[in-house]
Write a structure and sequence with these properties.
Elements (H helix, E strand, L loop, with lengths): L7 E6 L20 E7 L3 H12 L4 E5 L14 E3 L8 H8 L1 H25 L10 E4 L5 H16 L3 E5 L14 E5 L2 E3 L2 H14 L3 E4 L3 E6 L5 E5 L2 E10 L10 H4 L3 E10 L4 H7 L5 E4 L5 E5 L6 E5 L8 H15 L8 E11 L6 E5 L2 E5 L6 H16 L26 H14 L10
Parallel strand pairs: 1-17, 2-3, 2-12, 3-9, 5-14, 12-19
Antiparallel strand pairs: 4-8, 5-7, 6-7, 10-11, 11-12, 13-16, 13-17, 14-15, 15-16, 18-19
């Protein structure tokens, strides 16, 4: 672990670290002529929908153009929380939606976390899950005000589970001089995302779902009886119900949904093994971590606590993961100086989907069900919204999801190609610098 002038360890690979233990595998299923429910997208949202449908006696066919779980579902950081993952502070939400509705959203977000934990236990999902808590660092002194409001929203929704820590207590959570305080969430956890999506797929199949990879939906048309005809890369297929869970990989066959999603590549790295003692020096409580910057960092220990996994927006254009790995390594060693000299074994990327209102969305458009826009917090969110989509399909839900009452906005002339992201990235960098965040003391 000496500084060799390169951030790359021998054997460095551009592949998700998670895939070492649970690589996505093809699902070979012969396509039938028709299915009761066809789910497009074999990630967390689609598999959660299929599992819940199966538990209620309705079999789903899940299609994905890649191996099941290949997308962000097996590439993310594996951090999860409830209402703490809502993208806006309470005052912003209340101004947009009203206090009563915001309380419903926050309550549902907290309940989604409890439901997730119950699901892991009930289905016996092998995913290295642990409730470890989450620390969110304040990148600037004024960011503490927003964290205080978020903590208030969370505590109103689910009890005393969020606490604000002053700057002098940051070292209890992370060995950095750069955060001005932070927020501690107790109702938060970590898992192995590739193991989770693999276990979720197995649970869905056990409840009667069929999975087929290497199948792309090319188009669909609604029929007079309310069903659908799908043209796929492996032939025509009829479905009584159609559900989309494609999120950051939504293609041109779904233009209405694509216009409402902004796909952004998020990048991650894994350090070489440095041992639990050194990991604990850097991250004493072994939680999951994030911060308040516009260009945020997210990071955590590996499940065996022998290395550190670190992610962020290393580029606002599609970039190769070797180059972005060097950038993320620079971010990591600046944030936690004790890690200077530590090298990298893995780097990878995956698409995150943002909505223009920064909120998750579940609903029905022209008969097509969907669960989309995790906004960077997808494990609990997509598990919950997939279940909510299943209840929409089944009908008779006594309490539909509050997120289904949100409109799903777009912007004039937007078609799903986020051409504006380089400009957004530059503006975000400027905002972080104006707030006082600097990568190095010499940086202007």
């Amino acid at each position: 672990m000496t500084d060799t002038g390169t951030p790359f360890a021998p054997g460095f690979v551009e592949r998700p670290f998670w895939w070492e233990a649970a690589p996505p595998t093809p699902a070979e299923t012969r396509l039938p002529d028709s299915a009761e429910v066809v789910v497009i997208g074999g990630g967390i949202a689609g598999l959660s929908t299929a599992l819940e449908l199966g538990r209620n006696g309705m079999k789903a066919l899940v299609l994905d153009r890649e191996p099941i779980g290949w997308g962000a579902s097996s590439r993310n950081g594996g951090a999860l929380s409830g209402a703490g993952s809502l993208g806006k502070v309470r005052s912003d939400l209340e101004e947009a939606f009203g206090a009563k509705f915001v309380a419903e959203l926050a309550e549902e977000g907290e309940q989604a976390f409890e439901d997730f934990e119950a699901l892991v236990k009930r289905e016996g999902l092998d995913c290295d899950y642990v409730r470890c808590g989450r620390f969110v660092g304040a990148h600037a002194a004024k960011a503490m005000d927003g964290l205080k409001r978020r903590a208030e929203m969370i505590n109103k929704a689910g009890g005393e589970e969020a606490f604000v820590l002053p700057r002098e207590r940051v070292q209890e959570e992370i060995a950095t001089p750069h955060y001005h305080g932070g927020m501690l969430l107790l109702r938060a956890g970590a898992l192995h995302p590739a193991k989770y999506v693999r276990s979720l797929a197995r649970a869905a199949v056990a409840q009667g779902a069929a999975l087929a990879s290497g199948v792309e939906m090319l188009s669909y048309k609604r029929e007079a009886d309310g069903g659908f005809v799908l043209e796929t890369s492996r032939g025509r297929l009829r479905a009584r119900h159609l559900m989309l869970g494609t999120n950051g990989y939504t293609g041109t066959a779904m233009p209405w949904h694509r216009r409402r999603l902004v796909p952004v590549a998020s990048y991650m790295i894994a350090t070489e093994e440095i041992g639990e003692e050194r990991v604990r020096r850097a991250l004493p409580k072994l939680r999951v971590y994030g911060d308040t910057k516009k260009i945020l960092y997210y990071f955590r220990p590996s499940p065996d606590c022998r290395r550190i996994l670190f992610g962020g927006r290393a580029s606002f254009v599609d970039a190769d993961t070797r180059r972005t790995a060097a950038t993320l390594h620079r971010f990591l060693t600046h944030l936690i100086p004790d890690l200077r000299g530590v090298r990298l074994t893995h780097s990878w990327k995956g698409n995150v989907a943002f909505a223009f209102d920064m909120m998750p969305h579940v609903g029905v458009h022209e008969g097509v069900h969907y669960a989309m826009a995790c906004n960077g917090s997808g494990v609990v969110t997509m598990t919950h919204l997939g279940k909510a989509a299943a209840h929409q399909i089944l009908g008779g839900d006594n309490r539909p999801s509050a997120f289904a009452r949100l409109s799903f906005p777009t912007r004039p002339f937007y078609t799903g190609n986020p051409w504006f992201m380089p400009a957004v990235g530059t503006a975000y960098q400027l905002r972080d610098r104006l707030d006082g965040w600097r990568l190095t003391p010499e940086e202007p």
